[in-house]
Amino acid sequence: MAPFGTIYSYPNNPRVMKTLAVANLNGLEVSNPEFKMGETNRTPEFLAKFPFGKVPAFEAADGTTLVESDAIMQFVAESGPASAQLLGTTPAERALISQWVFFADGEILAHVITLVLPRLKLRPYDEATENSTLEKVERSLAYLEKHLAGRAWVAGGEKLTVADLSLAAALSWGFAMVLDAEVQAKYPAVVEWYKRTVESEGVKQAFGEAKFVEKREIPQ
Ligand SMILES: N[C@@H](CCC(=O)N[C@@H](CS)C(=O)NCC(=O)O)C(=O)O
Fold first, then answer.
1. Which of 55, 73, 102, 173 to mutate to test the pocket of ligand 1 (most atoms within 8 A of CB)?
2. CA pair distance 153, 196, nearest whole angstrom
3. For the GST N-terminal domain, which residue ranges apply (predicted)?
4. Quick one: which atom of ligand 1 is closest to the CA of 72?
């Protein structure tokens, strides 16, 4: 199989997992070469293609270059036989799927990153920020919990879509590092849907084994 494209990023970036899952479901090969954050993305070669210098960054075999992980995911989703399943077909289906992709980025991932950065020693820990951010994440989880009643997949169809992949990617560092057993117990439908998503064929190979933190540690 000729490679469809290359995605550049540091390893285990949730913003990459969703695209790699979509590539698997579409039978497309997307390579993810070795990359050193702060080095590879500062080289003149990288900046010539991706002047913003952020990752993920994507280059298709046809020369198309893209940044913004959801645009990359959409491009790869549009480019294979699972396109209708992943992105929907009617205007209403497509907009609903986009709604959850935007929700995943703005209402979950942004907060999860605020919670995770002090645990990766990339930002000082601040208790007030931690508590207010946890409240925001829990508001989103409560909304998702209710929405999932009677639904196997977020957009309501019979198969997963990019909505599920974006939300699961946004939550992956959260469940692994911060949203511990006490939080998980409040949102059983979310946890069940999350496991269903990340254990799906094609997704598990991209996301790796799901990790759940038992008790969140407070960074010192
Ligand atoms: N909205 C962008 C966010 C990309 C982003 O913030 N990437 C970070 C790493 S996760 C980055 O490359 N930071 C390097 C920098 O700020 O120079 C997306 O979804 O792709």
1. 55
2. 9
3. 3-84
4. 20
For residue 56, the CA-to-ligand 1 centroid distance in Å is 7
Decide: 19 and 32 in contact? Cβ < 8 Å: no
* Of 46, 64, 84, the domain-final residue: 84
Chain segment 106-151, per-residue pLDDT in tens: 999 999 999 999 999 999 999 999 999 999 999 999 999 999 999 9
Under-70 pLDDT residues of the chain? 1
Residue nearest to atom 17 of ligand 1 (CA): 54
In a domain, 215, yes or no: no
Regarding whether 92 and 80 lie in a shared domain, the answer is: no
Tell me which of 52, 84, 116 is where a domain ends: 84
Task: Based on the fold, state whether residues 16 and 55 are members of the same structural domain.
Answer: yes
Ligand 1 pocket at CB < 6 A: 15, 53-56, 68-69
Q: Does the residue 216 lie in any domain? A: no
Question: Residue 55 CA: which ligand 1 atom is closest?
Answer: 12
Report which ligand 1 atom has the smallest distance to the Cα of 109.
19
Are residues 100 and 149 both part of a single domain?
yes
**Cα–Cα distance between 203 and 207 in angstroms, integer?**
6
Cα of 53 vs centre of ligand 1, distance in Å, is 8
**Are 15 and 9 spatial neighbours (Cβ–Cβ below 8 Å)?**
yes
Phi, psi of 88 (to 5 degrees): 85, 170
CATH number at residue 46: 3.40.30.10
